[in-house]
From TrEMBL:
Keywords linked to the UniProt accession: Carnitine biosynthesis, Dioxygenase, Iron, Metal-binding, Oxidoreductase
Methyltransferase among keywords: no
Pfam families to which the protein is assigned, alphabetical: GBBH-like_N (PF06155), TauD (PF02668)
Name listed for the protein in its UniProt record: trimethyllysine dioxygenase
Reactions catalysed according to its record: N(6),N(6),N(6)-trimethyl-L-lysine + 2-oxoglutarate + O2 = (3S)-3-hydroxy-N(6),N(6),N(6)-trimethyl-L-lysine + succinate + CO2
Any one Gene Ontology molecular-function term assigned to this protein's record: trimethyllysine dioxygenase activity
Record-stated family: Belongs to the gamma-BBH/TMLD family.
Domain Gamma-butyrobetaine hydroxylase-like N-terminal stretches: 87-167
Domain TauD/TfdA-like: 208-447
Function of the molecule: Converts trimethyllysine (TML) into hydroxytrimethyllysine (HTML).
Length: 467
């Protein structure tokens, strides 16, 4: 027999009755030209807005079951928010659109967020997860009067958790449910700011903000972060042509990542470091620091001086190139997503940088299968000797197709940087390079960690709070 209730009463289902089926098809996620990327880079983890209290023994001893009249009204409540305990002790939740999913009791208890379970200041779990019984299940369960939360009293310790239903929907897993498109949805900001793939035509409308705006307000900084997030690069005009102003601009995003090249760098073609960046040679499109276990996330460039010719800067949207490769040569996309390689930096004395693990050129989230990182610098690629003989030619054939699309003029943004205009580049998406040049060329800039950059996107642009 199934026991259900109206809002505010205990919700249970007993016996072998099956969980309700979907009443409508899940809404499709935002798609970008069937691109291998998605807005999943912006789907960040949250904790539920929960509040817990220890109930009195009297409250905990109340019967969790509703009267039989609840079952007779169930048919009239098919679209109402409801929850019940299944025969296998999982908690089933039905949302306003009729979609139903389940949660394990231990999973729900593990995500309790009262001050005893989750520190309100440090936002860290205080609960000993290993101490939670695997068989834990609700003793009493009700839906809040406003249909926005689920109240649970646990059978083992009478602890009560109030879990936000929007959070539950966002983190559903059995099955995964599409988001309810609402202004209050945990994923609303993702839907509003999809990634935009681009080609050479972006030159006519570069994403540009003003230095004064970025430096003087969080709103101006948010506009710059939005450009970097959406396009993979963002230009800033009106930057004083000094190292100090450029460094201050970089620090508006995050602290500077120090490497064997130093922290904030100010260099010319003097081979101060053993890298072709410190020469006048042309540099093909590439991403930086492929030889780090954790490649840098952002790179800031500001040209302070150039007395000579050439030296135009090159930018290519790697996600757009990957999108084209998958559409035209899926076999090559698969090879570059699975064949692993290594890289090195060995030009400086007493320096030999190599990543802890090998990596593919196209890196995908193992859970979502979404492309999240391009990792390509043909100049820094290390010796390639681990493939079986049957795959060697296949790899080089795939690399040729990637390079052909990468170097297609229709995909290349060429622009001459000048004093006063800086650009921040997403090193996990956009490849950069430059033309050969003559004369004196002085470039400044810095590296930033990926996670520090994404933290600023969440807190300044999305205004997310771990609560």
């Amino acid at each position: 027999m199934a026991f259900r209730s109206r809002v505010g009463t205990a919700l249970y289902r007993q016996g072998s009755a099956r969980v309700l089926a979907y009443t409508r098809r899940p809404q499709a996620e935002l798609a970008l030209k069937s691109s291998p990327l998605s807005s999943s880079r912006a789907n960040q983890l949250h904790r539920p807005a929960t509040a817990c209290r220890q109930l009195s023994s009297t409250a905990a001893s109340r019967s969790p079951f509703t009267t039989s009249s609840a079952a007779t009204t169930a048919a009239a409540e098919d679209e109402a928010v409801a929850a019940w305990v299944e025969a296998d002790s999982t908690v089933a939740v039905r949302f306003p659109d009729g979609a139903v999913t389940r949660y394990h009791g231990i999973w729900l208890r593990d995500h309790c967020q009262c001050p005893a379970c989750f520190h309100p200041v440090t936002k860290q779990r205080l609960l000993d997860t290993a101490a939670i019984p695997l068989s834990i299940k609700p003793a009493v369960m009700t839906v809040a009067e406003d249909n926005k939360a689920l109240n649970i009293v646990w059978d083992t310790d009478s602890h009560q958790s109030t879990v936000d239903l929007a959070w539950l929907r966002h983190h559903s897993y059995a099955p995964k449910l599409p988001p309810l498109h609402s202004s209050n949805s945990a994923t609303a900001t993702v839907a509003q700011r999809p990634k935009r793939l681009w080609d050479a035509s972006i030159a006519s409308k570069l994403p540009i903000v003003q230095y004064a705006d970025v430096m003087n307000s969080d709103q101006g900084l948010a506009a710059w972060l939005a450009d970097i997030d959406v396009y993979g690069l963002g230009f800033v005009d009106g930057v004083p042509a000094t190292p100090k102003a450029t460094e201050q601009l970089g620090r508006r995003v995050a602290f500077i990542r120090e490497t064997h090249y130093g922290g904030f760098w100010d260099f010319s073609a003097n081979l101060e470091h053993g890298d072709t960046a410190y020469t006048q040679l042309a540099l093909p499109a590439h991403t930086d620091t492929t030889y780090f276990t954790d490649p840098i996330g952002l790179q800031l460039f500001h040209l302070l001086e150039h007395r000579g010719t050439g030296g135009e800067s090159l930018y290519v949207d790697g996600f757009h190139v990957a999108d084209q490769l998958r559409a035209t040569h899926p076999w090559a996309y698969d090879i570059l997503s699975t064949v692993r390689m290594s890289a090195h930096s060995a030009g400086d004395a007493n320096t030999l940088m190599e990543p802890a693990t090998t990596f593919p050129l196209l890196n995908h989230d193992p859970l979502t299968s979404q492309l999240y990182q391009i990792r390509f610098n043909n100049d820094d690629r290390s010796t390639f000797s681990h493939l079986p003989p049957s795959r060697v030619k296949d790899f080089y054939a795939a690399l040729k197709e990637w390079t052909r699309i990468l170097r297609d003029p229709s995909n290349e943004l060429w622009t001459q940087l000048k004093p006063g205009r800086a650009v921040m580049v997403d090193n996990w998406r956009v490849l950069h390079g430059r033309a050969e040049f003559t004369g004196h060329r002085r470039l400044t800039g810095c590296y930033h960690n990926w996670d520090d950059y994404r933290s600023r996107v969440k807190t300044v642009l999305d205004k997310k709070v771990m609560s």
